[in-house]
Design brief:
2 helices, alpha+beta, elongated, 82 residues, two-stranded antiparallel sheet
């Protein structure tokens, strides 16, 4: 699908309805522009809350404070000292 839009003097572009509908974009949604060479790609940003429950967490790592998770991860990745 190729649809043109004009850039205003303020650098604004209205995302055409057909594009909004195809990407499921509605008022208030955030989008991201990714520059790839001489073109830009527009994408709807994911709602990370929709991902809740999609990743299995081992029982030993459930109900652990986030600071502890980061601390353990850094300790596990740190090179061994001699």
């Amino acid at each position: 699908m190729d649809i043109a839009a004009r850039v205003t003097s303020k650098g604004q572009v209205t995302v055409p309805k057909a594009v909004r509908d195809a990407l499921g974009i509605s008022e208030g949604d955030e989008v991201v522009f990714r520059v790839e060479g001489d073109r830009a790609v527009l994408a709807r940003t994911p709602n990370f809350l929709d991902l809740a429950g999609t990743v299995t967490v081992p029982a030993g790592k459930r109900n652990v404070a986030w600071d502890d998770v980061i601390r353990r991860t850094r300790a596990d990745r740190a090179p061994a000292r001699r």
